[in-house]
Amino acid sequence: MEDLPLPALFEQTRKIHADATESAVDQEVVKKGCQALHRCEDMVNNLGLFSSNETKEDISTANLKYILVPFYLAELMEKIAQEDRLQILKASQAKLKEFISFCEAMELVPKEELESYIEGAPKTVVDQRARKIARFKRQRAAESKLLEIKERKERRGRSTKAAALSTPVEAGEEEVLDDDGEEEREAWTTTISLAICKALDLLDMLKKEEEMLSAVKDRQSKDGAEFSRDGLDERAKKAEAWHRDAAVRARYTKPSPPITCATFAQDVLEGRAKASQAHDHKHQPLIFGPASLLNGSLTTERERMAAQVFQPSHRMPTMSIEEAGLKEMEIMNKWQERNVKLMEEANSSWHNDRKSKPGEDDDEDDDAAQEKARAWDDWKDDNPRGAGNKKLTPCG
Question: Where do the coiled-coil regions begin and end (predicted)?
């Protein structure tokens, strides 16, 4: 790879970069790609392909693609797995800044991106969101344009091939071909615009990662080397205690075999159980949410409020089915006892003697009834049925 010219070396590194971006690549391949890109960078500097007083119009189409060398190198360096991650992040950020600064000098960075890059990160969340949306739209537009250029090239290639097969090429017509220099320049300019969007996103991500790693490193240096070990040991102890308690709680959360009202009543009737044993089957209302983890031991106001979370909105039953059945049995037993007592009173000798042996008061009542009946008969004799009803008398 060391003996290859710059165009061939760039194409190989570009292929390695594409493979590393699309899928996971071996670390050796990534390191070889970084070495090749470093060599490309050295060759570009030695050949003096770019000058500080040039713009994008002054760069030839053949050399325009070498602007991407620092960007490809930064993306490959970020994928290197190394113990000192901070060093990798700083080196990758340096290459990204170099790429963005060169594109800025070549007037390739959009004006809004240039302003935000110079001023730093926007202060409000709304500005950050607007900037990300605008960058995403530019990235999508660049990808669509590259796809369109690729399809256009493929269609032109198929048309040229078909024309060559159908029409023989005569002498002197070999050089009459479509010049695609403008199209190639447009493709590389669009690729650089897409790379600028990706570089800005990657730079923001690497800055955040660097801040996080620096904060962790500073904390470890302040607390000492035993900080992480003690923290891990404490977390392991907490996890073991939690699993132990969960295993203990599991024994009490298993459902007991159901005891229905019918079976318990049958046991009471057949003498295998007593009605006084109903307290053994008292209904315990279901507990939902955190209260089930507290086992009902609400000692503080905080625990009481936490136990009310996810409680049912309706009123829970105050007794079980077994208790309701026993209550109904008790009511029926009292009703049967009352009926038996009334039947005994009805069939008693005192009730019968009272009907068969009337007293003096009964005799007086009988005489008064007879006199009343005789007076009624006399009145009916004097007043026959229908007498005095003139309206019912038929007209003469």
Answer: none
**Which candidate, 122, 85, 109, places its Cα nearest to that of 200?**
109
Distance, CA of 123 to CA of 110 (rounded, Å) = 20
Rounded CA gap, 141 and 147, in Å? 10
Joined tokens for residue 210:
């660097």
CA pair distance 305, 216, nearest whole angstrom:
37
Question: CA geometry: angle at 373 spanning 368 and 374, to 5°?
Answer: 100
pLDDT of 335 reads 93
Three-point CA angle 390, 393, 396, nearest 5°: 120
User: Where do we find the tokens 């037993």?
Assistant: 333
Contacts of 12 (CB under 8 A, 6+ apart): 1, 4, 36
Q: Torsions phi, psi of 356, nearest 5? A: -80, -25
Greatest C-alpha distance within the chain: 160
372 token code pair: 């009343």
DSSP class of 274: -
State pTM to two decimals: 0.51
Residue 48 main-chain phi, psi, to 5 deg: 60, 50
Structure tokens at 326: 């026993």
- CA atoms within 13 Å, Cβ hemisphere of 338: 6
CA pseudo-torsion sign 221, 223, 224, 228: negative
> pLDDT tens for residues 44-89?
888 888 877 778 888 888 888 888 899 998 888 888 887 788 888 8
The closest of 321, 291, 320 to 303, measured between CA atoms, is 291
